[in-house]
Amino acid sequence: MQRPVSSLPLSPSVKVKLLNAGFQILNDVAAVTALNLSREAGLSQREALEVLQAVRKEGGADGGGGGAPLTALDLLQKEEELRSIVTFSSQLDSMLGGGLPVGKTTEVCGAPGVGKTQLCLQLAVDVQVPACFGGLGGQAVFIDTEGSFVVQRVVDIATAAVRHCSMLADDADQRDAMTTFNVDNILSNIFLVRCHDYVELLAEVYLLPDFLSAHPQVRLLVIDSVAFPFRQLFDELSQRTRLLNGLAQQLISMATKHNMAVVLTNQMTTRLRGGHSQLVPALGESWGHAPTLRLLLRWAGSQRQATIFKSPHHMEATVSYQITSDGFRDIDQSEQQPSKRPRTLPDQSAACSSKQMQLTG
């Protein structure tokens, strides 16, 4: 990226500050964090984030130049190399084709108390399931914007996962893996970040690529929730939309480049349509195009249900689930009413290893 900084679509005052601080070409700016850029160039944090966003946009989604185009076969082989994170709900995993997809962004929407955070905590544990059990053996970054991360709840979920895997261990590799797959190690492999407003959230997300490069085992990024910091302190919706678009592009880039699943939770809001009010995901319709997959968690009477209502791979489908002391789980088949619609693709869960299917059984 040898282009001059003056070519960026920024205000003249920001360009002058960058040039006066010694930032001449795009590579000079791309090499620093938002916080350091703010300090060194005398920019506000918002201006620094906008500069970095412009640099990444001009330099390409991967932060560099072009490159040879991929063929469809290349993409297929890359997709097959990526794996999914199981949820310990066999019905939800089956609906998703094996679990939450790695390398893509998934948004989990729902009203308070329906289980969004519980699913995120479950995934932060499940991403660490050893590969010999059909898991990823990875690590997780959990960005908490609402103060909803409860470590004791993680301990409960981790204890149940360890107990479940220990019951499945039937060969030397699995028994050896259980020596390190324990509650203490699970907790040490969840990196927690607390953000109190949208400025802190944006700063953390733009700092993450350096952290991910130093921690290549991270296979899951959770932001719980993405909506909370963006639903306050904004007089201009256009500014919020612009920042959200930049955030979405950064998350998509990280998911692809670092081969990890990005899971975002979103709140619900009331909108009038046809003279009637209905609950819809917050942050507006433009934000709805950002995630690859959208899951809606909702109440159906006394049951909790999960619905796919945006996916490039599946038609809309619904399954029931429950939150137990052990975590996110199926409900008894005898209690569940059939509610699943036909899918466009064959059930991809058949392609999962038998050990991965055991995990969610």
Tally of discrete structural domains: 2
Order of helices and strands: HHHHHEHEEHEHHHEHEHEEEHEEEEH
CATH fourth-tier homologous superfamily of the largest domain? P-loop containing nucleotide triphosphate hydrolases
CATH architecture group name of the largest domain = 3-Layer(aba) Sandwich
- Terminal Cα separation, in Å? 50 Å
Strand order across the biggest sheet? Answer: 5-4-6-7-3-10-11-12-13
Quick check: average pLDDT? Answer: 84
Let me know the number of strands. Answer: 13
What percent of residues are in strands? 15-25%
Q: Report helical residue fraction.
A: 25-40%
CATH class of the largest domain: Alpha Beta
CATH topology of the largest domain: Rossmann fold
Shape descriptor: globular
Number of helices: 14
pLDDT < 50 stretches:
60-67, 337-354
C-alpha Rg (nearest Å): 21 Å
Question: Major sheet, described briefly?
Answer: 9 strands, mixed
Structural class: alpha/beta
